[in-house]
């Protein structure tokens, strides 16, 4: 039996988080999805500082840019500055189409930048495309604790 693919979704919008969860639940792949509502919570989960986390490094992170407390840019900078976390593939999944956000995200070490579409079906298609690409085409680094 193959180990589940571990995904950390960092998203403060409950509707977008629920839709992402539902889309991954329909997957044929075994995906273990954790959700953090902001950058502070995500960093605590990654470092094993929450009661529910064990500092398991995800195989992929889906990161919104505009988050409360610690935003996506700051979280990405923290991850890329941490030797234990820096190899996590990070997909920016955000509503921003601003060129500045795109350029800054890549400069901070994002692996790709995806703009959230408007509409239920379009959003599900984007999440499915991310899943298909990252879990069937791309070779991810081995799972790490």
From TrEMBL:
Q: Which residues form the Response regulatory domain?
A: 6-131
SMART domains under this entry? REC (SM00448)
Pfam families (UniProt xref) = Response_reg
Among PANTHER family, the record links this protein to: RESPONSE REGULATOR RCP1 (PTHR44520:SF2), RESPONSE REGULATOR RCP1-RELATED (PTHR44520)
InterPro entries xref list: CheY-like_superfamily, Sig_transdc_resp-reg_receiver, TCS_response_regulator
Ordered alphabetically, the record's keywords are: Phosphoprotein
Q: What is the lineage of its organism?
A: Bacteria, Pseudomonadati, Pseudomonadota, Alphaproteobacteria, Hyphomicrobiales
Q: What is this protein called?
A: Response regulator
Tagged with keyword Amino-acid biosynthesis? no
Question: Where are the 4-aspartylphosphate modifications?
Answer: 64
